[in-house]
Design brief:
725 residues, alpha+beta, Dna Ligase, domain 1, D-amino Acid Aminotransferase, Chain A, domain 1, 4 domains, 8-stranded mixed sheet, 23 helices, 21 strands, PPDK_AMP/ATP-bd, kinase
């Protein structure tokens, strides 16, 4: 592959922003670079800043072959139907490819020489500056920035990561609006010297909630603490017309942000600070904001800092929107992308969220399920049952809201660790980190272990097997006690199937199948996981190991709750389905007449699921998807259209489904492999398959309609292929 760098050097070399630099040199640059140059040309001070043109990015991806990889991973990526796991998977693969790709020698040499000449070893902020940034579809956090980067080696690493963030999961959500086409898209980069500021902040020249106001916030130390909510701020609300301070909120800051060994760290102040800006400094910030708004002709969101009593503008971007509609159900909106952007959480936010989930949310869900279970539904009058249906529907709605607001965002802990692991270890497989998360005490595994123990008891006792096959249930003894334990803990977790109506016999049908299965899988524990963990910590500097251990512990909790939270929600759903069953019985026996809204609720919860259909075998002999769990297996296909179809699964079948949730994974020990239409390494089928060591392929487009029931297939969980036999 050619390592030559196309184009003249000015297309790939950093250019220093100065009053001598004509604006047309940055005509194709992103808004951040053009904005800073405009400020500088109008005597508003900025730190020493250089802009790396988009040409450097294009030279890198073309010379390294990354352009072809980008096209392969993004071509045909239907963002309308893909879930967040699938989009994040694609972006993580892209990021890891950038991380592992070396700079072409000529480009590396040229960049290293100019970076050394401009900045030497001074600490830098490396910021994204894509041409489409700060436009109508701009959102904070679409692309990456890195702080306290020093020297050629660190700068080149940061450049690759900023370039990769052009294809972040957040940016991919707005791929169409941002014009993300591998053949034409590009990322410029700003390299800005960090000024040793003793105070910093932001100014909205026009308030986001009230256009007659200007908002100024200030914090001690370096910028960044305000955006991350890490430092308590001083806040001014100023009348735009008169300049009078209408509201002032004193700071209670006890810490400030300073440069650390890597990035920034919070250090304690000798005493809490109430007043950060004096009146003269506030007026300087306001005047800078007014001038910037006049220069750009629109309200500005600016970041500023005072260093040795001199005011610097760090960046300025237009305020592209003001009051946005508020809703507590963004995930239910037609455009779910704003909700998706909210999933990204800081480490501190995730730690607080974990505390709330472990000590409040999950215990309250479990307690409420137990309370509802104690209600004697057959003893209720028709009016009482009417109220009970409405009450349980409301409670289910409440917990589903909590699930979307708190439980799904907590999965970001997995992502946080994944990026840390890949940036530290640089593995060939971008999902190698999941091996450090497997083996946690998942509720689904505990449930399946109890089922397996029941199956072993049946397999070892022919008399017990024959009694169960004849529908004779022992009332005493070890098996009866074990069955009672299972029913009390997990018997209600499949109430979307007929288990609720069959009592213990729904469970025992699975137990009998497991007992006779020669293919029953047990969970796997690998020494490799311990080896990878040791490798990871050896690659982390001694100063950061405690923090890295906390990130890993958080990720393991995220991984566990990623599966467990569905089972807790399943208990609430079970209580709701139980009251619907009671209401249906009374309607069918003409004991109660229900109003229309209750009748609507009484429709079978699975009535709208896709049912079996006539399926034509795919015209290709091999289908492909994402390899989510390694291994090779072959067997007859069993297509699952609804939870009821799980009872048709036989030992050694290849399970094909649209989506497998944790309430359905009790069947996994029987199957030879899993194929799922929904994609991602973090979907429930992938998590449970890795625990049992069976092959799993996700993201197989239209799997349930392209693979006929009963067809013999071979599943390659290493390559992600399904071959018709």
């Amino acid at each position: 592959m050619s390592q030559s760098i196309p184009g003249a050097s000015f297309e790939t070399d950093p250019v220093v922003l100065s009053t001598e630099l004509p604006p047309h040199r940055l005509a194709e640059a992103g808004g951040k670079a053009r904005g800073l140059l405009t400020l500088l040309h109008n005597s508003i001070a900025i730190p020493r800043t250089a802009y790396l043109p988009v040409g450097a990015y294009r030279a890198f991806v073309q010379a390294s072959g990354l352009e072809q990889m980008l096209f392969r991973l993004t071509h045909g990526l239907d963002l309308e139907t893909r879930r967040w796991e699938e989009i994040w998977d694609a972006s993580l693969r892209i990021r890891n490819a950038f991380e592992r790709t070396a700079f072409p020698p000529e480009l590396k040499q040229r960049l290293g020489r100019t970076i050394e000449h401009i900045f030497a070893d001074k600490p830098l902020a490396i910021r994204s500056c894509a041409p489409a940034e700060d436009g109508a579809h701009s959102h904070a956090g679409l692309h990456e920035s890195y702080i306290n980067i020093r020297g050629e080696t660190e700068v080149l690493v940061a450049l690759r990561r900023v370039w990769a963030s052009l294809w972040s999961d957040r940016a991919l959500m707005y791929r169409r609006e941002l014009g993300l086409d591998p053949a034409h898209a590009g990322m410029g980069v700003l390299m800005q010297e960090i000024v040793p500021s003793d105070k910093s902040g932001i100014i909205f020249t026009q308030g986001p909630l009230d256009e007659t106001q200007t908002i100024v916030e200030a914090a001690p130390g370096l910028p960044g603490g305000i955006v991350d909510n890490a430092v308590d701020t001083e806040r001014f609300v100023v009348d735009r017309r008169t300049g009078r301070v209408e509201e002032h909120t004193a700071s209670q800051a006890t810490h400030k942000l300073v440069l650390g060994e890597q990035g920034t760290v919070l250090v304690p102040l000798s005493a809490p600070v109430k007043d950060i800006l004096n009146s003269e400094e506030l007026q300087q910030v306001l005047e800078m904001g007014r001038r910037a708004e006049g220069l750009f002709g629109t309200a500005q969101d600016m970041e500023w800092a005072f260093a040795k009593k001199r005011l610097f503008a760090l960046q300025s971007r237009p305020i592209t929107s003001h009051v946005e509609p508020k809703t507590d159900a963004l995930w239910q909106a037609t455009d779910k992308r704003p909700w998706y952007l909210s999933l990204t959480r800081s480490f501190a936010n995730l730690q607080a969220l974990r505390e709330r989930i472990e000590h409040t949310i999950l215990p309250e869900m479990s307690a409420e399920s137990e309370t509802l279970l104690q209600r004697d539904l057959p003893a209720l009058s028709c009016d009482e049952l009417d109220r009970e249906v409405r009450h349980r529907r409301a409670r289910l709605d409440h917990w589903q809201t909590v699930y979307w607001q708190d439980l799904i965002p907590f999965a970001h802990g997995i992502r946080l660790f994944g990026v840390l692991y890949n940036d530290t270890v640089h593995p060939e497989d971008p999902f190698e980190f999941t091996q450090l998360l497997a083996g946690e005490d998942l509720l689904a595994l505990e449930r399946n272990a109890l089922l397996d123990h029941l199956a072993e008891m049946v397999a070892e006792d022919d008399d017990l097997r024959h009694d169960l096959e004849d529908h004779i249930l022992p009332s005493t003894g070890p098996f009866a006690q074990q069955l009672e334990t299972f029913i009390s803990r997990f018997g209600d977790l499949a109430c979307s199937t007929t288990w609720c109506q069959e009592g213990p016999w729904g469970v025992l049908r699975i137990v009998l199948d497991l007992a006779s299965s020669p293919h029953r899988h047990a969970t796997k524990r690998h020494q490799q996981s311990a080896n990878l963990e040791e490798q990871f910590f050896q690659a982390i500097s001694r100063e950061r190991r405690k923090w890295a251990a906390e990130v890993l512990d958080l990720a393991r909790a995220s991984y566990r709750f990623r599966d467990d939270d569905n089972l807790y929600l399943g208990k609430i759903q079970a209580r709701y389905y139980e009251v619907l069953d009671e209401a249906r019985k009374r309607r069918d026996f003409e004991l109660c007449a229900w109003p229309q809204d209750i009748e609507d609720l009484l429709q079978d919860p699975s009535a709208h699921r896709a049912g079996p259909a006539t399926v034509a075998r795919s015209t290709t002999e091999t289908l492909s998807g994402t390899p989510a769990s390694a291994g090779i297996a072959r067997g007859p296909v069993r297509v699952i259209h609804s939870p009821e179809d799980l009872y048709s699964v036989q030992s050694g079948d290849v399970l094909v489904c649209d989506a497998l949730d944790p309430n359905m994974t009790f069947i996994v020990p029987l199957v030879a492999a899993i194929i799922e239409r929904r994609g991602g390494m973090l979907v429930h089928s992938a998590i449970i398959a890795r625990e049992y060591g069976i092959p799993c392929i996700t993201g197989v487009v239209a799997a349930t309609s392209r693979i006929p029931d009963g067809t013999a297939v071979a599943v390659d969980g290493f390559k992600g292929t399904v071959t018709f036999l």
